[in-house]
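Lecture 7 notes. Example A: sequence first, then its structure tokens.
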Amino acid sequence: MNKIPKTIDLFDISHSIAEAMLRECEYPFMAISKIGDVIEDLAAHLDRSYREIEDGVFIGEGTKIGKGVTFCAPVIIGKNAEIRSGAVLRGKVIAGDGAVIGNSSEVKNSIILDEGKLPHYNYVGDSIIGYRAHLGAGAVCSNLRLDKKCVLVGAESRLNTGLKKLGAMLGDYAEVGCGAVLSPGAIIGREAIVYPLSHVRGVIPERCIFDGEAIRDRV
């Protein structure tokens, strides 16, 4: 039940400008070390609907940037997205069309698919947020083990990713409640729901609910 989902199990990759790279990655964590390089490649071929607002920072038409946003290149933001006041994009960030990065949220080395939303006080590091997936206020994707060892993914069978920095993989349409903590390497399946204040490790299968203690199917 808790097998390790592959990239195509979690995401409709057509909803990302990084589709080609994601298609090459059998498991989603394999994309994390490639984000910087793929931004460099994509930036060289962006159409005129994108503009470079700072060196190495590109935004699509219709995207709104709030006051006090901090960008550290490289960054690509899609069209009609919203980056709210006080957000920090700390390098190697791809956010899709209609994405929302909220006030005082911090994102680094991550991919947010189209319409992915982290609207209030979120931390997303070394993670992938799926199409129309949503993090509630204060939910965080922790990306470093306390013992600083390489992150493992899976539950019953565990795979060593070889990465010391790895956050969460949040599938399309997944919902994570306020104040939840997703441990390094956590995987949330498509349309899964995580209750507020939960601590998530391992894998939450698609279309399941995790209430902080047990996993059950959505009705």
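Example B, a different protein, same format:
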Amino acid sequence: MIKTVRLTAIAVLLIFSTVTLSHAQEDGGDPLKYRKWRVTLINPLGTNGVDALDYTAKYSINILGGAHGGLDGAEIGGFFNYTRHYSAGMQLAGFANISSGRMEGLQIAGFMNGSSRAMSGLQISGFANLAGRSVSGLQVSGFVNGSRASMDGLLVTGGLNLAGTSASGLHVAGIGTLAGQHIDGLIISGVLTASKGSLSGLAVSGVLNSSQSMDGLAAAGILNLSKRMSGLQAAPINIAETASGVQIGLINLAREFEGAPVGLISLYGNGRKNVDFRFSDGGFTDIGINLGTYRVYNMLFAGYNPLLTRDVYRVGVAVGMEKPLSDAFRNMTDSSLFINQELSYTHHIEGSWSWDKNGIWSYKYLLGKRFGNGLSLYAGPTFNLQIVRTSIEGANEYTWYSFWSPSGHGRDYRFWVGFTTGIRIFKQEVVPSSISQW
């Protein structure tokens, strides 16, 4: 095993020392001489002898490895293939295909394909495809596809796609896709997608999407992070300095946000930060934190029912929309009157916490009035559906009546129309009357 590692290291040094020395020479000068065939054991033991770097060929066989001027056809190398000026065509190597010039066509190597200049076509390697300039086409590698410039096309790797400037097209990476300037296209990463500039298109990452600006759809397993966001962000945590569009997550944060938030906590510098106290039919009294925008809000609340002879608590979440009453009734010109339309879900707890199904879905249509900018009162009808496991006793006492109570599949269902009244405190603003101003 140690001998194998040593031999591999020596071979890599030999290849890259050859590349470095030859790359110091310019591509200009006399045109390459042409021979249809060449056969090389290892330089200079071959048909072109010590002048191998002055020749190109249509067909090339390198028994161990060969260093040549160029390739215009097909080449097979037992260990490596190297060209000083360019590789155009098909190359197969047990270890590496290397060129100090451009590389185009089909290159397949057990370890790596490398070009000091542009790389295009189809490159497949067990470890890496690397280019000093742009990469375009289809690149497949075991660990890394890398370019000091741009990467365009379809790039698939078990590890990283790395672009010095921009990355565009379809990129699939087991670890991540990183770019020094811009990322554009469909990006799928096991861990992260990150750009120092913009990220646009569709980005899906197991942990993190990060960029200065983010446009399109970004979905992450943990965090979306950007200075400016436009479009749709979906992750447990979404953070932006300025954002517009839709944020879906457990925690949504931004200094300025315009759009629709959906989450447990949606905290925005220019958004609402209210506390609501509510009483609803059945006797439940709730207190909730109401965050989001002044148009669309998210509420996290908890409650208790003092009218029951036993302790029954509940926790819930809600997403709602506020609009002026004049949007529904044009003759109502008082800007202090508003409508809240809200969808909520509450989970009820008796005794210790249980995940057993014991919840109520509610749609609320609430009419309200603001008194100044720090207090409002509201009330309205609610349309409710209770879903509870049949084994939970006493859950029917959460409601005063039901106009339909079917059962099935181990669950009881109750439908009824009720009411909710509430008080909202802290800063509030008049929502623009035109829904197009969201």
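Note on Example B: Confidence is low (pLDDT under 50) at residues 1-28. The chain has two domains: 2-196, 274-437.
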